[in-house]
Amino acid sequence: MLRRLLGVGAFFAAHWACAQDAMWSFQPPVTGIARQIESLHTWLMLVIFVIFFLVFGFMFYAILRHRKSLGHEAKPFHENTLVEILWTLIPAIILLGMAWPAASVILAQKNTHGADFTIKATGFQWFWSYDYLDHGFGFKSKLATPREQIENFDGRGQAKTEHYLLAVDEPVVVPVGKKIRILTTSNDVIHSWGVPAFGVKQDAIPGFIRDTWFKAEKIGTYRGQCVELCGKDHAFMPIVVQVVSEDDFSKWIATQQARAKAAKDDPNKAWTRTELIARGQQVYEANCASCHKSNGIGGGAYPAIVGSKIATGAKAAHIDLVLQGKNAMPAWSALSDVELAAVLSYQRTSWGNQADIVMPAEIRAARK
Amino acid sequence: MSSDTLHHTDHGLATHHPQGGWQRWLYATNHKDIGTLYLWFAFVMFITGGVMALGIRAELFQPGLQYWQPEFFNQLTTLHGIIMVFGAIMPAFTGLANWMLPLMIGAPDMAFARMNNWSFWLLPPAAALLIISLFVPGGAAGGGWTLYPPLSIQSGMGMDLAIFSIHLLGLSSIMGSINIITTVLNMRAPGMTLLKMPLFAWTSLVTAYLLIAVAPVLAGAVTMLLTDRHFDTHFFKAAGGGDPVLFQHIFWFFGHPEVYIMALPAFGIVSQIIPVFSRKPLFGYVSMVYATCSIAILSFMVWGHHMFAVGMPATAQLFFMFLTMLIAVPTGVKVFNWIATMWQGSLTFETPMLFAIGFVCLFTVGGFSGLILSIAPVDTQMHDTYYVVAHFHYVLVAGALFSLFAAVYYWLPKWTGYMYHEGRGKFHFWWSMIWFNVTFFPMHFLGLAGMPRRIPDYALQFTDFNAIASVGAFCFGLGQIFFFFNVIHTIRGGVGPAPSSPWEGGNTLEWEVPSPAPHHTWETPPDLATVQRGLRAQAVE
């Protein structure tokens, strides 16, 4: 209550009016941590405003009154030990008053013990993938805003929809009131997973696993974005978390698990050329098209696949490139053998390319 | 050097008058000529970096991609950062130190005049590498001025050019620093002890030490980046057992002191100007010196606050948070001292004073947002958002840049021998002051609401403030062209010749020599009485 009075009323004149669309201040917090962060910020602002008015008060009094043009004579004093000691000690004490409450929030933020379940968030260039480690499935979560809304070159472009750049095809779904542990890691460069309403932000670093947690207290949809520069589509990898009731969550889990089972490529299946290429197109659209374009012509630092030496040459080099990555191209070894075989087959046979297809077994062999 | 000294004694100084034309500048060894070169170079870079900033703001004027592809946008932000830090602000301060230090401490020139020439002439090739990198395949470096790997390992040869450029810039900075340290420590006029020299000499000295300590660290970091890119080392590549976060630690061990490399000389300038226009000695000279040194020492221990989001242990977060907050104490002491200097003064508000007061006001605001960011849990919300962009522009534009403008107006009569047009100077100040705030203040709100930095396109709720900031940026930029013509007008005669000491309260030694300052000054050091007279501005008698 005190927080509300202090923070909102007194200072950011427009804060309360616009709290909903979070224009002047934080997005409305929905976790304990986010609320503590907000009240910490309010407390800091209070202290800062007091100091601000004192400091600027003295300065502007001098500026207004101690002018030469008003005939003010300078008094050439130039030290006062007591004053100087005081204005060193008092700020130091004020700082203690700021650091003390902050320290306890840090300890709470860092305490990821006792989570109800764990989701692994992996950053890719440029989307997120989520693995529900305790439930045995995972999915990729990509920007849902169509490119036609984004690109307005030469005055073209569609009108922008409500959650422009903040909508994904598959949101993370979590139950309300449960402690969720988020593991972050990355497939290529450093990304950062953050949802402001939860007071959570954690870098996703290749080769490392970091963790953070949240316990959402309100059902709803909460949005964030990648917050670490990760290359050209940094602006286009939103994070959407849907907080639902426990019942809805169980239902959602069940459908996801069923879907995951159905979508799994059967490892014993004998793939025909047409099936493989068709599957490859899906994989290509999902993973490769953002750089190499859906017609394979590439652009900028991203080479064309149409007629390229790699895509029409020896299979081994092509497989190696996709597994290892090179320059701006990350390693794609996180895709399954079937997915890789399919996408390579698609690349080698599309847009006029006429090379042999790649079978999943060849990928498996190349991995060793 | 020894033959040069002999040469001096044999023939006197007659042969050392400036050569004509381009040779005067290419072979320059005179501290004033080199200072001028540095300042013009910095101005050209300032305009270049500024045009890039306007490219960024044009794209961000409204949501959607209008002008640039995201790749190019990232190159703009990267080059804008590198150019402003290494090309504009740092050379400008070195230029000021070159021009003014010998004058202010009663030395005939900088200690190593020929190295001085070399340290300047490394800069244009470095700048050229950065500009050329825009036109190579794959474009310029697009990983942000922080060059975090693995992103910076991915990009094309633009990154290599940026790395070489940083090597050159670092080399230049180290040589400049050696020169400043040697000059200040060895070449002061008799009677000017360390605790009696002008505060600008103090801050330049401390800054030079900071640079010598951290420029090699940056050079090491980017060299490791280079070998990771081309020689298959794995310092920062997780796939080979390297650590991408290691780069951040090394980078910010350089990067945080770098912040003070850009702020301390500004403190020095303001500490020269405020007493003059208050007609009072500087309040708390000794505590200013202590504050400068404590800030410098603390700056080495706080780099982790740039990395609160990488996932450091709670103890490390607490350590970095407490030490970072501690910097507020000496910085506060400085602000209080400036205000106490104005208190009970006899104030006038010529352009240098306006910029100095503007500096104090806005730097204080930037200091406050810095304090907010130092609180690790709150930083969770602000990290890598526009709040950070607002914060560091308040300390670097309103801090470093405004102090540079103050310095230019303050010493322009000494440099050119003419007075600038006061009305135009004031117009430049008020125009910059207003549009600076229109540009950067709304960014605080953008950051609080969660807009990530370094994005070419944003969600719809960020539209209004971005539009305001873009308008502000273009107007702010326009004002700097006005500044250029203002300076040219002064060089061409301004509003008339300047006396040797145009400011009523000016006491320091540079005001003892005629305006414009002759090519050679203080061939014999100033006598004790002159030095003592100059110390009145420093409150130590």
TrEMBL record, chain A:
Domain of life where this protein originates: Bacteria
Assigned keywords, A-Z: Copper, Electron transport, Heme, Iron, Membrane, Metal-binding, Respiratory chain, Signal, Translocase, Transmembrane, Transmembrane helix, Transport
Cytochrome oxidase subunit II transmembrane region profile domain span: 18-113
Membrane topology: Multi-pass membrane protein; Lipid-anchor
Segments forming domain Cytochrome c: 275-351
Localization per Swiss-Prot or TrEMBL: Cell membrane; Cell outer membrane; Membrane
Protein name: Cytochrome c oxidase subunit 2
Organism: Deefgea tanakiae
Lineage, broadest ranks: Bacteria, Pseudomonadati, Pseudomonadota, Betaproteobacteria, Neisseriales
Gene transcribed to yield this protein: coxB
UniProtKB/TrEMBL annotation, chain B:
Keywords tagged on the record: Cell membrane, Copper, Electron transport, Heme, Iron, Membrane, Metal-binding, Respiratory chain, Translocase, Transmembrane, Transmembrane helix, Transport
Cytochrome oxidase subunit I profile domain mapped to chain residues: 16-529
PROSITE patterns found in the cross-reference section: COX1 (PS50855), COX1_CUB (PS00077)
CDD domains: Cyt_c_Oxidase_I (cd01663)
Pathway where it operates: Energy metabolism; oxidative phosphorylation
Catalysed reactions, as listed in the record: 4 Fe(II)-[cytochrome c] + O2 + 8 H(+)(in) = 4 Fe(III)-[cytochrome c] + 2 H2O + 4 H(+)(out)
Localization, UniProt: Cell membrane; Membrane
InterPro entries: Cyt_c_oxase-like_su1_dom, Cyt_c_oxase-like_su1_sf, Cyt_C_Oxase_1, Cyt_c_Oxase_su1_BS, Cyt_c_oxase_su1_dom, Cyt_c_oxidase_su1_bac
One Pfam family in the UniProt entry: COX1
Known function: Cytochrome c oxidase is the component of the respiratory chain that catalyzes the reduction of oxygen to water. Subunits 1-3 form the functional core of the enzyme complex. CO I is the catalytic subunit of the enzyme. Electrons originating in cytochrome c are transferred via the copper A center of subunit 2 and heme A of subunit 1 to the bimetallic center formed by heme A3 and copper B.
NCBIfam families listed in its UniProt record: CtaD_CoxA (TIGR02891)
Family: Belongs to the heme-copper respiratory oxidase family.
Annotated protein name in UniProt: Cytochrome c oxidase subunit 1
Gene: ctaD
